[in-house]
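notes to self, project folder thing:

trying the whole complex as one job this time. last attempt i did each chain seperately and stitching them together was a nightmare. two parts in total, labels are on each line so i dont mix them up again. if this works i'll redo the older ones the same way
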Amino acid sequence: MDIQRNVTQISVFQIALLLAMAMNSTAILTAPAITVQYAQRDLWLSPLFSSVSGIIVLFLAIHLNRRFPGMTVIQYSEYCIGKWPGKIISGIFLLVVLHIGSIIVREYAEFVKGMFLDETPLLVIICGMVILSTYATRSGIEVIGRLAQLFVPGVMLTWVILLLLTIPDWDVMNIFPAFDGGILPAIRGSITPQGWFSEMFLLSFLLPHLKKNSPIKKWMIIMVVFAAINLSILNIISLFVFGNLVPTLTYPVMSLIRYVNIADFLQHIDALLLIIWVIGVFLKIVLFQYCIASGCAQWLNVEKFRPLVLPLGFLMVLFSLWSASSMQDLSAYLKDTSFFYAMIFFLIYPLGLFLIAIVRKPKIRRD
Amino acid sequence: MGRRLRANSHQKNNENELTEHSEKRISNVLAENISTLKALYSDCYDVVFRSFLIGEMLQAELVFIDNMVDREQLDTQVLDVLMTCKDSTLVNIQNIINESLPVASVEPIETIKQCVDDISLGNPILFINGSQEAIRIGLNKLQNSQITDPENEPVIQGPKYGFNESLQTNASLLRQRIRAPELKMVLLETGRYTKTQVVVTYMASVADHALVEEVMDRLKRIEMDGVLESGYIAEMIEDSPLSPFPQIKSTERVDVVAANLLEGRLAIIVDGTPTVMIAPVSLISFIQAADDYYNRWLFGSSFRFLRISSLFLSLVLPALYVALTTLHQEMIPSDLLVSIASSHELIPFPTLVEAVIMQLIFEILREAGLRLPRQVGSAVTIVGALVVGEAAVTAGFVSTTMVIVTAISGITSFTAPAYSLEMAIRILRFVLILLGGFLGLLGVVFGLIGIAIHLSSLRSLGVPYLTPIAPANLSEWKDAWIRSPWWKLNRRPRLTGRWNKYRQAKHQKPANKKRGE
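result (full assembly):
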C-alpha cells in the first residue's frame, strides 16, 4: 500500500553517511597517534594518501556489483572461482569480517572503560552495545539507513563545534618544518589508515539494496574525500595543539577535547565526545553485523538473515573478548597486523575477483 | 452450576433469536411482526409499541424508543396526519410515503434486522397490516451536547470551539470547515452491542486511496462487544501496538482535523466521543501545535523549536543528572559541582534512588490532581508540591537540586501539544534514569540509541514514523523543525499528499511594492 513497504531499500545518501561514519568513528580516536609514528609533522598529509585505497575498493565493489547485479561478494565469488572454492573463501571472508567487527567492539569497550567507566566490567559494556546493534540489525537495512540519517548530522555538528572550541589552543607554527624528510614519511604514515579505508569494501553488501539509478560513484567519491579531509583536519589540529607531544598520547583527540577550557565554565566537555563517538561506533558495529549476518545467510543459502543476527551477535561478544588479552595487545594489533589483514581481504581478494571476472567473463544463470 | 448452565442457555437463546430474525423479512401480518419485536425487546421498558388505525380502518403500529424520538413531531406529523386521514387508497406503502407523511426522512425497509437497527438509532418504525414493508420515519432526537472549548488543546489565537460527543455535530462542524464535495465521509458501524457509528473522512482528491481502503479493512476487522471511545479503535488498528509511542494522533480541535485532511491524511470520527483520530502521522505531527500556523511564522518557528528542545530535555535531564553526579563527577564544572555536592551532603539516598522517588511522587501528584474533582484537585497540587516538597527539602530527604531537576523535567514535558506523546516521554524517562544510574553517560546514550532504533522501525499506517527526518526529505523540514511562512509551504507532505503535490500557487511571497507604482 505504501511505496516503501515490503521493499527494503537504502538511498545513496544514507549509504554515504553510514560509510563515512563507519570510516571515521574508530579512526578519529587513534588516527593521529598511529600516523604520527612515521609521518612526524606531516601527519596531516597521510589520510589523503590513505584514501587512495578507499577509492580503489569502492571502485571494485561498484564494478563487481555492476557485473553481477543484485549480488554480494559472497554470491559472485562462486561464479568467479567456482562453487566450492568460492564457498571456502567466502567462509573465511565472513570470519574475517566477524573478527574485525569484534575487534571494533573491543576497541570501543576498552576506550569507554579506560576513559569513563573504570569500574564497570568489560562484558557489560560490550553486551550493552551488541544488544543494541543486534536490535538495529534485526530491524533491517532500511532502519540502519534511517539511523545513519538520524544520527550523522547531529554528530557532525557536535564534532565541528568541539573542534572549533579548540581554536584558542592552536599554535599554527607547530606545523613547521614541513616535509622535513621529503614526502616519504607521509606516505609511510598513510599505511595503517589504508586498512581502515579498505573496510569500505563492505559497500558490496549494501549495493543490492540501493535504489535503482542512484549516482553512487559521485557520492562515494564525495564520501571518501570527506572522510579523508576530516581525518586530515583532526591530525592537523592535534599537531597544532600538542606539537611534539602527539606520539606520547594514546587517544590524542580525547586529550584535545579535555584540553578545552573556555571562560572556566565550558570545560570537561569530553562527555560530548563520548556521546558522539559511541553513536558513531554503534553505526559501524551495526554495519559490520549486518554484513556478517546477511553474508552468512547468502553463504548458507538461507532466505532470511534475521534469525542469524542474534547468534552472530553472541559470537561477536565472544570474539571481542578472545581477540586480545589487553589494551596493549589490541593497539599492537591495530598498529601492525590490521593493515595486512584488511588489505588481503578487502583489497587484494576483490581485486583478484575483479580480474578473474574480466578475464573469464563468467555467465550468470538467470532463472 | 445448574444456574450457570441455565443462564448460558438463556443467553444462547437470545443470541439465536437475533441471528434467526436478522435475515427474516417483514411479514404482511401485523401481529406476527409485533410479536417478533416484542420478543426481542422483552424487558425493555423504554420501547414503546403504539397501535392505531390509519384513516379509522387500517391497522398500524408504531415502534420506537421512548426518549430518543422527537415526540412532538411524531404526534403532529405522523399520528395526527395518519389518524385523521380519510383516504382509502392508503394500502400502498408508497402512497403513504408520497402523500400523507410530511416528514423529510422516510424510507421503506424490508427486514426485521433493519427495523432493529433503526429502532436503536431512535427512528420510529411504522408497521402496517397487510404490507410486507415497514416505514422508517427519521424523527430521532439525540441528546445533543453543547459545542464547547477544546479544553485539552487551548490556543491563544484560533478558533475556540472543539468537537463534542455527537457524531452528527462533529461531522457537520467538519463540513462547515471544508465545504468542498471532495470531503468524503464514509459511515461504518462497529461494536457488536454498542453499534457505534464510525465515520472515516478524507479528501478524495488528496488522500491515498489505497490508504483509505487499508483503514476501512482494518476497521471492518474489529469485532468487539463495544466501542466506547476512539481509543478502543486506535489500539485495534495501530501498526505496532506494543510501542510506547502513539501512532495515531487524537485531537478535539476541528481546525487541526481540517488541516490534516488537507495534507492527505485520514480522520476517524467515533460517535460518543469528542476525540477524533488522525492517521497516518509522524513523530513531528505530535509536536506541531495549531498555534504555530496562526501566529506569525517567526514566532511559530521559534516556539516549535523551543518545544522540541524542551521535550528532549524533559526526556534526558533527570537521567543526565543522575549519570553525571554518580559516575562522572569530573565532567561537572567545579563550581557547579560544589553547590550540587553541598545540597546532596546530608541526603540519605543515592542519587538514583532519590531521582526515581522524586519522579514517582511527581507522577502520583499529577495523577491525583487529574482524578480528583476539580475543586479538590488544585488543593492537592498545592499541598503536594509546595508543602510536602518544602518540608522534604528542609527535613533533608531530598536535595534542592533534585527538586529543581524534577520540576524542570515535569514542566518541560507540559510543552507537548499532544498528551499521548507526553505519556511516552514520561515512561521512557524512568528507563533512562535507570540506565543512567547503572551505566552512566554510556547508559543514557544506549537508551537514546535504543529509542532511535525503535522510532526508525515504527510506522504509522505504513508511513515511516520519523519522516521527514529519516528517511530525510530536506524540503519538508520547512514544516518540521520550524514552521516556514505560508508562501513557502507550497508542497504537501510527500508521503501522504504525493498524489496532489501542490497545495497552493507558487510565488505568493508578498512583494514590497509601494501603492500606485
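what i see at first glance: Residues 12-358 of chain A form a domain with the Amino acid/polyamine transporter I fold (CATH 1.20.1740.10).
need to look closer tmrw
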